[in-house]
Amino acid sequence: MGAPGLQVAAVVAFYMCSALVMVFVNKAVLISAPDLPLVFLLLQLLIAVVLLRFSAFVSRGAIEIPKLDLDIARKLFPVVSVNIIGLVFNTLCLRGVDASFFQIARGLVLPLTIIVSSVHTHSAPSWNVILASVVVTGGFFLGVAPSSKVPLTAAPSLLSLAYGVLSSLFIAFHAVLIKSSLPYCNNSTIQLAWWTNAGSAVLLVPVVLICGEHSTLRAMLADPHWDGTVFLWGTCVTGFFGFLLCIAGLLSIRVTSPITHMFSSAARSVLQTVIGVTYFGDLITSNRATSIIVILGGTMLYTWIKAVETQTAPPRQATDIESKGGDKVEDEEIVWQATEEKE
């Protein structure tokens, strides 16, 4: 394997490891402290902001952090607010479902993104894209359908499923808003990531206070019977790997093709299921296993269709400065991949 092959393999492995760590450590923390989902999310965001600042300092200009500008903050308010709402629903969904079922609960990300994007651009997707969307939607409903093989204690609640659908919907809104927000950040996803993380943390603070999680945390810290080791280390690990995942998603899009990127996502999903069953004792029925396969199949079909459509379409210049130098990918594909992996 030559240098380019090793580079692609290293980036794919980096991306997969970061994503897997995020899901399972997040789940472990939420199991140990189920009453602190918003505090947990807030600390992750703050860690990401600090690490972005540190990276800008040590990179000597390679990574540029924008200066605070109230006018830009006002323009970015829609994308920041949609981001934090989606992250909250995402966290609440993961708290209420098995780690392996999490990918089923959020299985409508792709169909909803296609719908929202079509409404926003006033354009109709191709019939092939609609077919891929229908396949993914069918996989979602297959996975969430009631089954006699799933005990009531192991069945996800309707509220958790609602959180998953809402999370998927706000991811779709976020994908559309990213495209219109990048010009305010010099077309830099790194600068947008800083604004998004910092702004989301600011917006989340009053929610934490209103929900009383700061009081809950204070009470838990004062309780001699509560072992906060998992919460403390889990927060540090997920905050760090959340930062890495942002970089990993960008590297994966730059160095690999969309199809390679999506196949690495599929491999991650399979590993996620295996690890969930092995270490968390997740229940996998034939319906759930088939659902995961159908969702992955529909997603890869969509990726292949978009790759073919991009090759036959007139060449377009990439607008994201971090994406320059990699494979030429349609803007919509870059935005959807980066958003999907960030969540």
TrEMBL record:
GO terms for cellular component: membrane. InterPro entries: Sugar_P_trans_dom, TPT_transporter. It is a multi-pass membrane protein. The keyword Repressor does not apply. Keywords: Membrane, Transmembrane, Transmembrane helix. Residues 8-302 form the Sugar phosphate transporter domain. Its main location: membrane. It is found in: Membrane. The keyword Transmembrane applies. PANTHER family: SOLUTE CARRIER FAMILY 35. This is Sugar phosphate transporter domain-containing protein.
